[in-house]
């Protein structure tokens, strides 16, 4: 009885897989696009557009212009975060391409959550541009670390030195908030110390190797991220028409940012508003707070999302024209 060689038996399913793979890629692409469209429609339907326009009509044009300028500066600054990842990985994508990917990912991250925007879009776009998964993981991880390092310092400083008047039914008082702020500052200092004294060591966590950057790079991370969080606070402060002290507005924004992450609500919709009303209603009428926050969402969330959607489609079209496996310089 004739037997089929083992290598021939294995070649048949491999050949079938190679023929099926392009179709799997096409189906996966359309599923991804469909998911993005569904998320955008879901986000848009949850917004009262009449209220957005009414809030804008109540804000002075000069205030909107200054706030829009700070938004542009913030997005420009955040778009450079992945350039630090390019520095540590040494990949060859151009700075403009990296900044475009970061901008698109950040805008979708704000509106649709970190898993969709911060993670999925980066993997999608960077791999389409020729980077391997390991490199993308390192770039993504370093960018996230940069962002939250600044949060530790800005929030820690605000909680320690400008404690908020918390509602009586909150489980943490001003003393607890000071302790939390000090803890955040200690964590940031520990990271800087690690970079200063152990940047030549490699740490392994769940199969991933990580080496702390040099202290100079860590300090650059800190300055960039602190500046970005401060710009975000400045946008809200302007849209509240400077009726509350800037440090207090910044501290409330820090509370709202982490509350949005904990609750897993896309764009922190409703969470940020609830935090601001709870913590600033002793200074401002709730209506004025909500009007300012609607303006903030329109300027910092929705306008960049519209631009990022167009940018994403342009990058997809560009990647489609590239020959398979050819990285972008």
General description of the model:
The protein has 329 residues and is mainly alpha-helical. It has one domain. It is 76% helix and 2% strand. It has a two-stranded antiparallel sheet. A hairpin with a 2-residue loop joins strand 1 and strand 2. Helix 4 crosses helix 7, helix 6 runs antiparallel to helix 7 and helix 7 packs across helix 10. The protein starts with 5 loop residues before the first helix and ends in an 8-residue tail after the last helix.
What are its keywords?
329 residues, mainly alpha, two-stranded antiparallel sheet, 12 helices, 2 strands, 76% helix, 2% strand, globular
Could you write a compact summary of the structure shown?
It contains twelve helices and two strands; from the N terminus they run ααααααααββαααα.
